[in-house]
Design goal:
The protein is of the alpha+beta class. The chain contains eight helices and six strands; from the N terminus they run αβααβββαββαααα. The protein folds into two domains: 97 residues, no CATH class; 78 residues, no CATH class. The chain is 48% helix and 9% strand. The strands form two sheets. It has a four-stranded mixed beta sheet. The protein has a two-stranded antiparallel sheet with strand order 5-6. β5 and β6 form a beta hairpin. The longest helix is centred in the N-terminal third of the chain and has 18 residues. The chain is elongated, with a radius of gyration of 19 Å.
Length: 191
C-alpha cells in the first residue's frame, strides 16, 4: 500500500508540471519510475500504460481545470482538456482510474461532435424545460459507461435519456426535432 501511495504522490506532482499531451504526461511518469524503488516503479509504469490506454485515442491536453471540472471540450472542434488530478483512483489498487478517464474522454468527444449553433436555446419535454447546456450535457452523459462519479446536477441532467438518434439530432443542433421526437411527435426529415 505504501508503494501505491508513493506512486500516487509522484503522479500528482508530475501532473502539476503544466499543460501537456497524454503521451507527454505518460512519458514523464515513466521517467519518474527510473529513480523509484521497484514496487513504486511498477505502479508508475502501469499508470503510464493506463493513461495511454484510456486517453490516447481522444488526444486531450492534460491540464488542471477550475472548480470540479474533470474535462472540457470546445464544440465542433478537436480541442479537449482533461484534469489529470480528477482521474486519480480511489480504489486502493491503481494510481489512476482508467475507466473514469476513458468515460471523461468519451463524454468530451461527444461535445466535440456537437455543432456550436442550434435551432433553439431551450426545449420542453413533457412539463420539463431543458436549456441548451443541459441538452448538450445529456447527450454527452449518454455515451458514458458509468454515472457513479457524476455530480448531483449531472445525475439530474442524465434523466433526459438519449439514444444514438437523439445524439445525432443534438450534434446537428436540431433541438426542435429532438423536442418533437421526445414528445412523441413526427420529426422532420430535413438534414
Amino acid at each position: 500500500m505504501e508503494s501505491l501511495e508513493e506512486a500516487q504522490a509522484i503522479y500528482e506532482e508530475t501532473a502539476k508540471s503544466g499543460e501537456c499531451s497524454v503521451d507527454t504526461l505518460a512519458g514523464k511518469v515513466e521517467h519518474q519510475a527510473d529513480d523509484a524503488l521497484e514496487e513504486v516503479a511498477h505502479h508508475l509504469i502501469k499508470t503510464a500504460k493506463d493513461l495511454r490506454g484510456a486517453l490516447r485515442k481522444y488526444n486531450p491536453t492534460m491540464k488542471r481545470l477550475e472548480d470540479d471540472t474533470a474535462g472540457q471540450a470546445e464544440l465542433n472542434s478537436s480541442s479537449m482538456w482533461i484534469d489529470p488530478e480528477k482521474i486519480i483512483a480511489n480504489n486502493g489498487a491503481d494510481v489512476i482510474d482508467s475507466d473514469l478517464a476513458e468515460d471523461i474522454g468519451r463524454h468530451e468527444k461527444e461535445h466535440q461532435q456537437q455543432f456550436a449553433i442550434s435551432d433553439a436555446h431551450e426545449i420542453q419535454i413533457g412539463s420539463t424545460t431543458y436549456d441548451e447546456r443541459k441538452i448538450r450535457e445529456a447527450a454527452a452523459i449518454s455515451v458514458m459507461k458509468s454515472r457513479e462519479e457524476l455530480s448531483d446536477e449531472y445525475k439530474a441532467i442524465a434523466s433526459l435519456t438519449m439514444d444514438k438518434e437523439d445524439r445525432d439530432l443534438v450534434r446537428k443542433g436540431r433541438f426542435l426535432d429532438l423536442e418533437r421526437k421526445k414528445n412523441g411527435n413526427q420529426v422532420s426529415n430535413a438534414a
